[in-house]
Design a protein that fits this description.
This protein is of the alpha/beta class and 361 residues long. It has helices spanning 56-60, 67-89, 108-124, 134-140, 183-193, 200-208, 231-243, 245-249, 251-280, 295-307, 317-320, 325-331, 352-356, and strands at residues 3-8, 13-20, 47-54, 96-104, 129-133, 151-156, 161-168, 171-177, 284-288, 311-313. It has 2 domains: 3-144 and 320-354, 2-Layer Sandwich (Nucleotidyltransferase, domain 5); 148-318, ATPase, nucleotide binding domain (Nucleotidyltransferase, domain 5, 2-Layer Sandwich). Helices cover 41% and strands 18% of the residues. Bound molecules: 5'-O-[(R)-(carboxyoxy)(hydroxy)phosphoryl]adenosine (KG4) and zinc ion.
Length: 361
């Protein structure tokens, strides 16, 4: 048993978790079935607690995340969130053997709050610190279901959309990525155009569940290869809503417009993900990131993989949206920095990890 305190504050969720990095269901856990939100699989024993203190109320009035508000809210929520994670796991400070924290990419002020707290705790307790990249954390979420590398992981969040070929642990190669907006951005911007409240992706998912996905034939202009593009789709929705103002105002029609828009995003994500697996000759497919919480994506990807005999690993929603448990799942594959060599460690807003990790286009 080796207990890690994990902290994640890259955007607008203040999260802390306790993860056992030496327990049962370890790194070579047997491949488990996909899960559409059910109990955690083989790796579940590893996650001793996971607390997410959402800041949504603080940002709702602004219609989106306000970076400075996020940083301030993290400072207010973090101490209580860490205490709750320890209490929930039944773990005392003395039981901890390390700290892991997201160092980027994300909102720089928000990241610095988590990093400063992690350094302070690790330094005071004379513990090692593991620096975790946010994208690697998202793709490590599927280790909770017992996936084994190599596998393809569609990683789709508010800031990133990429097809990662995970070669070992959290080492990955980029097989495709968005050329413009992230998929989560497409959901959020679409939701805003449809007059839905922030946070938009989930609201659009809920509205679309009552609609007809073939109602509007939104364009599927796919870039070549395994890259994605979503900005044209957003413009198409804008024009559609301008031309059909009265129609779109009725609830049933709005639901069908939302369902059609969602379908265009999901088509692209599912199509390129299974193509990536086929091109790479890989039999295992996983997803990570907030967009992987989308109910239509979960269902369509499961069906598409089953049709082709691919094994699919879809983490529970709580492990797809930002959380600290996935930070611990990634940390198991990374080298910790010994006490006190991490005091000069910095956070980063952009994606050096992607550049460093043999990006092949
Ligand atoms: O991974 P995440 O929680 O934070 C980032 O790293 O960005 O992802 C947030 C994104 C947002 O764009 C949000 O609208 C989207 O994930 N999202 C969804 C759903 N739940 C969250 N998009 C579609 N359907 C959902 N159910
Ligand atoms: Zn994220």
């Amino acid at each position: 048993m080796s207990l890690l305190l994990c902290i994640e504050t890259s955007c607008d969720d203040t999260s802390a978790a306790v993860v056992d990095t030496g327990g049962a269901g370890g790194l070579d856990g047997a491949g488990g079935p996909e899960s559409a939100g059910g109990p955690h699989g083989a790796g579940a024993a590893l996650i001793r607690s996971s607390i997410v203190s959402s800041q949504h109320e603080s940002h709702a009035a602004f219609g989106g995340v306000v970076p400075e508000v996020a940083s301030r809210r993290h400072t207010e929520l973090l101490v209580g969130t860490v205490a709750a994670a320890l209490a929930d796991a039944g773990v005392a400070w003395d039981d901890l053997e390390g700290v892991a924290v997201t160092t980027g990419p994300g909102l720089i002020g928000a990241l610095l709050v988590g990093l400063a707290a992690a350094k302070a705790i690790a330094y005071a307790r004379r513990l090692p610190l593991t620096a975790v990249d946010h994208l690697q954390a998202h793709l490590a979420a599927s280790y909770a279901l017992g996936v084994t590398a190599p596998f393809v992981c569609l990683t789709a969040s508010g800031g990133h959309t990429l097809l990662a070929v995970v070669e070992r642990g959290v080492e990955f190669r980029v097989a495709g990525r968005t050329l413009d907006d992230a998929a989560g951005e497409a959901f959020d911007k679409g939701a805003r155009l449809l007059g839905l409240p922030y946070p938009g992706g989930r609201e659009l998912d809920l509205l679309a569940a009552r609609g007809e996905p073939s109602f509007v034939a939104f364009p599927r202009s796919l870039p070549q290869g395994l890259d994605f593009s979503f900005s044209g789709l957003k413009t198409a929705l804008l024009y559609y809503l301008r031309e059909h103002q009265t129609e779109a105002a009725t609830e049933a029609l709005r639901a069908s417009v939302a369902a059609s828009y969602q379908e265009a995003i999901v088509d692209q994500l599912v199509g390129k993900t299974v193509r990536c697996a086929e091109q790479e000759g890989l039999r295992r497919v996983a997803v990570g990131g907030g967009v992987a919480a989308n109910s239509r994506l979960r269902r369509r990807l499961t069906a598409a993989c089953r049709e082709r005999g691919l094994e699919v690993f879809i983490p529970p929603v709580a492990l797809c949206t930002d959380n600290a448990a996935m930070v611990g799942l990634a940390a198991r594959h990374l080298e910790p920095i010994a006490w006190p060599q991490y005091l000069g460690l910095d956070a980063y807003a952009a994606e050096p990890a992607l550049r460093a990790l043999r990006v092949r286009r």
